[in-house]
Amino acid sequence: MAPRWAPPAPAGLVLVALLALLLPPAVRGDKPVRGGLSGVGAEPEASSAVFPLYGDVYPHGLYYVAMNIGNPPRPYFLDVDTGSDLTWLQCDAPCVSCNKVPHPLYRPTKNKLVPCADQLCEALHGGLTGRHRCDSPHDQCDYEIRYADQGFSIGVLVNDSFTLRLSNSSVVRPSLAFGCGYNQHVGSSSEVAATDGILGLGSGSVSLLSQLNQHRVTKNVVGHCLSLRGGGFLFFGDNLVPYSRATWAPMVRSAHRNYYSPGSASLYFGGRSLGVRPMEVVFDSGSSFTYFAAQPYEALVAALKGGLSRSLKEVSDPSLPLCWKGKKPFKSVLDVKKEFKSLVLSFANGRKALMEIPPENYLIVTKYGNACLGILNGSEVGLKDLNILGDITMQDQMVIYDNEKGQIGWIRAPCDRIPKSAMCQVAAKRGANSAMG
Ligand SMILES: *[C@@H]1O[C@H](CO)[C@@H](O)[C@H](O)[C@H]1NC(C)=O
Ligand SMILES: *[C@@H]1O[C@H](CO)[C@@H](O)[C@H](O)[C@H]1NC(C)=O
Ligand SMILES: *[C@@H]1O[C@H](CO)[C@@H](O)[C@H](O)[C@H]1NC(C)=O
């Protein structure tokens, strides 16, 4: 049994959002500095912003960006989460319970409070509990958000400027609403958190993406490219989107959650159907691993175990529930890849849009040199019938959430290079480096 798995959420709690379900007790001393950003050059097309990403699936368990917020702008690290809407920062309001975070706590001023009569407050409450409480229109907008991993944040909605450098080399400073979280429990409180907060990129109107679109800064399109070797990039807007080459499936709207889902898919392993019911699939960059519901999980584990060569022995490893060792410790997934077959998801809505999941998109090699299955039993963490594609499965693919056209796309890509055509987010990079140096 893996460590740090909380029991399923009791019924009646605030709706769970999806987020990093497993943050390993990782090395926080690493400096995820990435260099070599190139291709700075003005572009005629406006409306895109590109950010370098930091982090990895293992050992850090998350990918994050540096965003410049406030006036004067200060950098904050935010966990990129396409599985929830609200962006929030740990905040000195004053703080009742905060982790140690990489940067000084954000300090709100009274005039930054968003009143509860504001549409965004209503949308936020609607998305979290379905109920909007606002006794007097000038009251502050309180919120409480809970995640699938039992993490939570309690705070108040504020409004401050985000400094963004666009691909047309303009710098814009829209005022955007986000949470000032003064009481939270995320990850383990004894360690320094990797990030100052969360970047909510779901499809709801509170999402930073929707707000940028409302302010006519970028189109309502977001994409990420998570590198297998760590880092990668995130973009808002559609300038980088390879529309004709990517595989697309229409988004399915679920009634009350702003999850990104292309609907249900059939599961194949090594070219053969696993014979499970179609799976409802959600794309969630806030989850480090992938979760299958009990039935497909069991079918997959049985098929995997049935197909392995004798050179692999099941072994217990504190990192994840199901691991194998070889004759010698593995150094990377490439050492063990040939022992495993690819998975394929076939999405019914996308005229059989296929997503191939090769072994490097479902295995990790731990520091003990074992190969472990990065697809976990979602029923065990209370996800019921939902299947979540987490970071591990989206690595080295550009994944595009296109709310303009209502579709989700993916395409294999080398994610450790920001495309030449993109303007790099110089301000954020400088902020990140100085904050770590
Ligand atoms: C760049 O794009 C933004 C928003 O899309 C726009 O407000 C700004 O005027 C543009 N700048 C230039 C130099 O075209
Ligand atoms: C946020 O602040 C800006 C500028 O101060 C203001 O125009 C806007 O109405 C505010 N938005 C909300 C939701 O309070
Ligand atoms: C998956 O989780 C469910 C719920 O906890 C459990 O009943 C089932 O046995 C688990 N399956 C496997 C293969 O671990």
TrEMBL record:
Keywords: Aspartyl protease, Hydrolase, Protease, Repeat, Signal
An example Gene Ontology biological process: proteolysis
Keyword Repeat tagged: yes
Pfam families noted in UniProt: TAXi_C, TAXi_N
Statement: the UniProt record of this protein carries the keyword Secreted: no
Signal peptide: 1-29
Superkingdom per UniProt: Eukaryota
Similarity section: Belongs to the peptidase A1 family.
Name by which UniProt lists this protein: Aspartic proteinase Asp1
Organism this protein belongs to: Paspalum notatum var. saurae
